[in-house]
Amino acid sequence: PSPSLSKEAQEALNGLLQREIEDKSLKPQKDRITVFQTLATFYIKYVQIFCNLETVYDQIVHPQKRLVIRQVLEGVMGRILELKNEMVELENSEFHYFDDILQDLKLSPEHIEIPIPRYFIKEKLKVLREREKILAQILINSGLQDIKPVSIPWVPVIQISERARQGRLRATFMKQIYLEEKRERQARLQGVKGPNLDAAALRIQKVWRGFTQWKKTVKMREEEMIFLGMNPPPQFQRISASVARAQNVETKRCEVQGRHETEYEKALVSIKTHLREVEGPDIKESLQDQIRQWFIECRHITGKFPDYPNEEEGGSTAIFSQKTPDQEEEEGWKMAPSNFLPIMEEGNNQYKDVWQNRDERWNFPQEYDPELIKEEKRKEVEEEIRVQVDELMRQELKNLKLAVDREKEKKWKKGKKGGKKVSAARDGKPSLSHGRTGFAESIQNLYSVVVFHYLNYALYNNTVSHLLSPCFLPAGEYSYLGTTLRQVDIEPMPSLTDVRQLIALYGILPLGSQAVHEKAPLVKALLLAGPTGVGKKMLVHALCTETGANLFNLSASNIAGKYPGKSGLQMMLHMVFKVAKQLQPSVIWIGDAEKTFYKKVPKSEKEMEPKRLKKNLPKILKSLKAEDRVLVVGTTQRPFDADLRPFCRVYKKILLIPRPDYASRFVLWKHIILQNGGAVTKSLSISCLAKVSDGFTQGHIVYAVQTVLSERRLRQMTNKPLTAAEFLSSLARQDPVYKEEEETYKVKLTST
């Protein structure tokens, strides 16, 4: 990576950590606006550090440096979530706007875009491929992939198409003959003389010169627009040699990272074994000498040999780890309210102490440093040997007491030790390996049952190659007037970029990192509310795509008729959540979430029993712990039909997915047309489409584009460029979302 990028991130992190330690007046402040600006400034700066560190971690190949940077990176992610949680509690809103702060810091909205760490997927490729194979095998064994496709009688279709083509050609030929005969007949009746050759030549020259001049004018205008930056250059759409070279370098870098990581893991084992064999006897002898010296000093001071600390007290470690009152007071004073500040400080100090001034001219390939491994593994070997030495020295101390002090071991001590042995045997530790094997087999069987009953989705066709594609989150634009509207007491409608940020913060970052999920503010359930077509279900699949998570479907329509009765429901929920915890990260999707909390079940849906999960869902959410990377995501089009009190107890995080505004529609039209094989030319007015599609959702735009861009239309595009008028008819056939309906969502959800 660029040295300036790494240095910039480290300097910014040092400054922020120092400011957080020194700034003790953040919470006592009474002015809410000042507090929010302080939190928002910290948030923006941490997001910038996050972006830089994520790039550094992705590009660096040294395995030991990557471990330290990974620790700091996860600490920064967790701190961002903590600051976001404080801003939510301060303003009682999930959406925040930083227009004025960004302007003061001279930053653009792109600088606070939450990046999705690339290692979430890259480091899980092996697991994802294995899961893909297991899922495919389960589907084959269950007979779910044996469905034969419906055969289409292609021969009659081809014959009909060919006859139609020939008929069109024959009709065109006959029309030309008819027109020629008509012209000859009219000429004979009018008595027109033959054409004048000079006049014909003059007309041809006139037309040709006009055409050539028109071509020159168009070319000059195009060059001027490119010069002014209004149009992209002709080679803009082509992949440049620099981009291709960068992609090649990235592929090779990933290979080098994997190779160095494998070598580093092997070196951890081999160097530890070597240290145990070479330095182990010396360490053992040194520990024994230190403990014997302690025996002698204690007997000299107290007149008798001391009692040896037991394993619960730390054994001989407790002898040499006594701290002074000053040290304990200093350690307590360093404790910060944040769970991630100590992690960032430790990683940052470790990087500065070990790597900042280290001479690495000898390590040009950036392979592992064996000396650092020795320092790390020497402590582990010493700890393992210490346990063995403790057993020997306990026996030696016992013999010394018998020989010198004539002191016999009391009977209650033997009984206590015997009790410990009995309790250890009851714990079942010897049969642990056998239990794990059986447990793994039971999980695979449960997974097969879950897939067979369609409770697990095949990740929206998310194969490993699809998971490596660019960001799957929806396109959109930032809301530039949020702060201005709030200053005049108008709550702005969130933009698609705001929604994308919250999905990344509440879903992707915690699910992608175990360290972040365990210590960050815990979000167990998330509700996505909005009208039809705004992309709620796509956001659920985006969560799984970006984190490689399993997707389980517990929608009322999907579990209807499965596992009937109270005991059957408990069995199904136990099975699904057990598999979800073991194969984490996992997303539990509940579509039409309002049906689970209906005030009154409609007659047409009584057979489906939509309220089956109403009593069990809160209990299951309560049982989820910080180490369980399981997120329950509900989607709803009509949250007003639910009993809001129990509904909001389950879904404490409610996100409104709005219809896109003008800026987002402009981005969406361009993005979706290009995604479906279209081309944006000067004859296609994107701004016109964005204007006339006011009130239509992302789903409406996708439907309109896919309807127009058929295979035949794509083939004609080189000779007949796309125009805005082509998309209007397919848009007009759909019902828009009116402003009154959207305001209803905002008022109802804000009141809850």
3D architecture notes:
This protein is elongated. A six-stranded mixed beta sheet has the order 1-3-4-5-2-6, with helices on both faces. The protein is mainly α and 752 residues long. Mean pLDDT is 78; it is low at 146-150, 323-336, 408-441 and 458-472. The relative contact order is 0.08. The two termini are 47 Å apart. Among the domains are: 443-658, Rossmann fold, CATH 3.40.50.300; 662-736, Helicase, Ruva Protein, domain 3 (Orthogonal Bundle). The protein has helices spanning 3-22, 32-59, 63-91, 99-104, 119-122, 125-142, 154-190, 197-228, 241-278, 280-302, 317-320, 325-334, 341-356, 370-405, 411-426, 432-452, 464-467, 482-487, 496-512, 514-519, 536-547, 556-559, 565-582, 616-623, 644-650, 662-675, 686-692, 698-708, 711-716, 725-732, 739-751, and strands at residues 456-457, 525-529, 550-553, 586-591, 630-636, 653-656. Strand 4 (586-591), helix 24 (616-623) and strand 5 (630-636) form a beta-alpha-beta unit.
Question: What strand order characterises the main sheet?
Answer: 1-3-4-5-2-6
**Which class best fits the helix and strand makeup?**
mainly alpha
Please identify which CATH superfamily of the domain at 443-658 we are dealing with: P-loop containing nucleotide triphosphate hydrolases
Which CATH architecture of the domain at 443-658? Answer: 3-Layer(aba) Sandwich
Task: Determine the fraction of residues in helical runs and give it as a percent range.
Answer: 55-70%
- State the name of the first-level CATH class of the domain at 443-658: Alpha Beta
Rg from alpha-carbon coordinates = 35 Å
Shape: elongated
Task: Report the strand count.
Answer: 6
CATH topology annotation of the domain at 443-658: Rossmann fold
Question: What separation lies between the terminal Cα atoms?
Answer: 47 Å
Q: What's the total helix number?
A: 31
Average pLDDT reading: 78
Largest sheet: 6 strands, mixed
Protein name: AAA+ ATPase domain-containing protein
Pfam families: AAA
GO molecular function, one term: ATP binding
Keywords: ATP-binding, Nucleotide-binding
